[in-house]
Amino acid sequence: GAVVSQHPSRVICKSGTSVKIECRSLDFQATTMFWYRQFPKQSLMLMATSNEGSKATYEQGVEKDKFLINHASLTLSTLTVTSAHPEDSSFYICSARGDAGNEKLFFGSGTQLSVL
Amino acid sequence: DAKTTQPTSMDCAEGRAANLPCNHSTISGNEYVYWYRQIHSQGPQYIIHGLKNNETNEMASLIITEDRKSSTLILPHATLRDTAVYYCIATDSWGKLQFGAGTQVVVTP
Questions:
Q1: Residue A100 above 70 pLDDT?
Q2: Measured in whole angstroms, how far is the alpha carbon of residue A59 from the centre of its chain?
């Protein structure tokens, strides 16, 4: 099946720094990618939808200047958490959908972000 | 997207079939029923999806009622590795996947 690679799997950073998370579709072209956040013992919360070559669409309550999304190619989307603070500590997960009428979403393995 | 309702948790004995119900009474005609599961600290894993007809793959079977207002995911022979949170989501084929609380399934020896 299709594979989505997410990197890094775990990152620890100091408060105030920025962290970039990469999401790659390895064997298909992903027109659309989605970014989720998950706090402990909670469900996944959709943050934004990323379409190749255009600006991301953010869900209500998600700060677009805080969570910068770039989808510059059909196989790569990045999420940058800018000026991270401890409350941004969370599990971030990306997913991707192909552009050939594929109905399934494939998910990355997630990135655990810990901000000290 | 149609709202879905699932039981909070369920236990299942290893080797037995696990039947996971999902209600989606407001589902529209173009919305599929998707099932994903998430094992602790991993990304969700696709299981199966369907529109009207029952579906079966190597992981599970999906039974959708004729009125499409509910469905059941069947894991035919549960193993300990099937312990996970199972999510039932109704959306169209190009829609976003919005996750609810899901069902925590615990498979016991």
A1: no
A2: 13
A95 with B44: Cβ contact below 8 A: yes
Residue-wise pLDDT tens digits, A39-76: 999 999 999 999 888 889 999 999 999 999 998 888 99
Short-list B32, B50, B47, B15, CA closest to B96: B32
Q: Do A46 and B100 touch (CB under 8 A)?
A: no
Instruction: Report the Cα B17 to chain-centroid distance in Å.
Output: 14
User: Is B87 at the interface with chain A, CB within 8 A?
Assistant: yes
> What is the distance in angstroms between the Cα of B46 and the nearest Cα belonging to chain A?
7
Residue B21 burial (CB count, 10 A) = 15
SS3 assignment, position A74: coil
Which DSSP helix (H) or strand (E) runs through A69? strand A67-73
User: Considering only CB atoms, which chain A residues are within 8 Å of B94?
Assistant: 32, 97
**Rounded distance, CA B94 to CA A32, Å?**
9
Positive or negative, the CA dihedral A93, A98, A101, A104 is negative
Closest CB to B99: pick one of A43, A97, A106: A43
